[in-house]
Amino acid sequence: MVSGELASGKTALLEEFAETVLGSPGLLLTATATGLERSLHMGLLAQLFHSDRLPAGVAEAAAGLIDAEMSRARSRGTDSAGAVDAAVAQGLCGLLLELARTAPLVITIDDVQHADCASLAALLRVPHLVLAVNKMDLVDYAEPVFAAIAAEFTGYASSLGITGITAIPVSALVGDNVVEPSANLDWYAGPTLLEHLETVPVGTDPSDEPARFPVQYVIRPQTAEHPDYRSYAGQLASGVLCTGDPVTVLPSGHTTTIAGIDVLGVETDIAWAPQSIAVRLSDDLDISRGDLIAAGPTPVPGKDVEATVCHLNERPLKPGDKVLLKHTTRTVRALVKDITHRIDITASSGEDGLQQRTEANELNVNEIGGVTLRTAEPLALDAYADNRRTGSFLLIDAADGTTLTAGMAGQAFGTAHPAVASERRNRF
Predict the structure, then answer these.
(1) Where are the alpha helices (H) located in 134-217, listed in sequence order?
(2) Structural domain span for residue 286
(3) Which of 7, 171, 315, 373 has its CA 20 to 30 A from that of 390?
């Protein structure tokens, strides 16, 4: 995922990739429009995303989000270029959240607004972030300029809890250090941008995480050949399961051991995320769809959920709303007890910088904030910081099934020092 403000060099960078790597600059998204507003936000959309990498309908969805934000700006009587830019940023926020939620890597091109990109990456625990310091040709490829920018941004991003940061100097206009090394940057000993993208590890070692297996389906053939067969099918969300491992079934808390594992109908002794498997247990327990089979440190099931959420629906989220909460394969009724705060990711001042919290009695579309929920049944939620799969959930309209809100259990950002974050955000 590539992010950047207007005139920060995204188009030149993507054109270099398209022409050199893909063989055709025409693969970039294009848009025709009339009027300053439409051309601005569609131009930014075209620059941000590459057609080859988009799920179906993403471009249309982003344009719809931005149009909605522009309509709200007009209703407030603000239609200046600044309002257009703000609408673009706000309209893309929800889309970036959805894409970054599963993205293994984000490229941010150095620019004044990219503290905001770092904020979203930190919020979603994106494991790798590349800072492409563009337009090095304008400063005569000066190493001290690059070093100062890299140190400043790395320090700021680290204060938000981001650890996997790589800074790379480039000039997208002339192709320096994008695909091939450049003699103009002979002081730089690291990889080119393409080399880094091709070699950066985008997966994680499953053994580093505790095993989490949400039950999707109970298999009981009850045939003459298999009269007592019972297994539990689903996708291993994280970790590794082995035959003989002790496990806990949540939310009931019953303990047992793994008696057998089947992968594509073949018995095996070990399985790892994200394989789809069928698990047999040593004991006959009352297990159904939505239960969680867990190994290692297990979450404590509970009905009270504190989370950071991004609201995705035009209808505001308010205290007292009755919704459905979908967590892995389990869906339960829930009540929005309180909206504790709103996080202003564009704040340039304040005690907490990008983490500035303001009082809120509702969340509007694409706004990020903290909520307290009460569920009708206990849920085994991990903190999102510990497990992105079992720490995330959706809030759904019980009446029509519309997705309302994407949630992340626990604290929004990693450990940060607010005073340091505020100072660095102001400097950006």
Answers:
(1) 143-159, 193-199
(2) 211-294
(3) 315
Closest CA to 173 of 134, 146, 131: 134
Q: Look at 68-72, 149-153, 228-232, 329-333 and tell me which has the smallest mean pLDDT.
A: 68-72
For all residues of the chain together, what is the average pLDDT?
77
Contact (CB, 8 A) for 409 and 386: no
Q: Report how far apart, in Å, the C-alpha atoms of 81 and of each of 6, 70, 74 are.
A: 12, 11, 12
CATH number of residue 160's parent domain: 3.40.50.300
Tokens at 146, concatenated: 């690059």
Residues in a beta bridge with 219:
231
Residues 6+ apart with CB under 8 A from 133: 110, 146, 149, 150, 167, 168, 169, 170
**What's the gap between Cα 198 and its chain centre?**
21
Across-strand partners of 249?
A: 254, 293
CATH code of 259's domain:
2.40.30.10
Q: How confident is the model at residue 116 (pLDDT cuts 50, 70, 90)?
A: low
How do strand 330-343 and strand 403-409 relate by DSSP bridges?
A: unpaired
At 257, give phi and psi (nearest 5°): -130, 160
Structural domain contains residue 206: no
Residues 318, 397 contacting (CB under 8 angstroms)? no
What pLDDT shows up at residue 9?
56
Per residue in 76-94, pLDDT tens? 665 555 555 555 555 555 5
Rounded CA gap, 428 and 149, in Å?
A: 10
Residue 37 within a domain: yes
Tell me: pLDDT of 353 over 50.
no
Of 294, 327, 345, the domain-final residue: 294
User: What is the torsion angle, in degrees rounded to the nearest 10, for the CA atoms of residue 353, residue 355, residue 356 and residue 360?
Assistant: 170
Q: What is the DSSP string of 206-242?
A: GGGS--EEE--EEE----SSSTT--EEEEE--BSEEE
Cβ-based neighbours of 140, under 8 Å, separated by 6 or more: none
Instruction: State whether residue 214 is helix, strand or coil.
Output: strand
Local structure of residue 410 (DSSP, 8 states): S
Q: Which residues pair with 107 in a beta bridge?
A: 2, 130
Instruction: Give the span between the Cα atoms of 133 and 120, in whole angstroms.
Output: 19
pTM over 0.90: no
Beta strands 322-327; 330-343: pairing state: antiparallel
Q: How far apart are CA 260 and CA 269, in angstroms?
A: 7
What whole-number distance in Å separates Cα of residue 324 and Cα of residue 408? 15
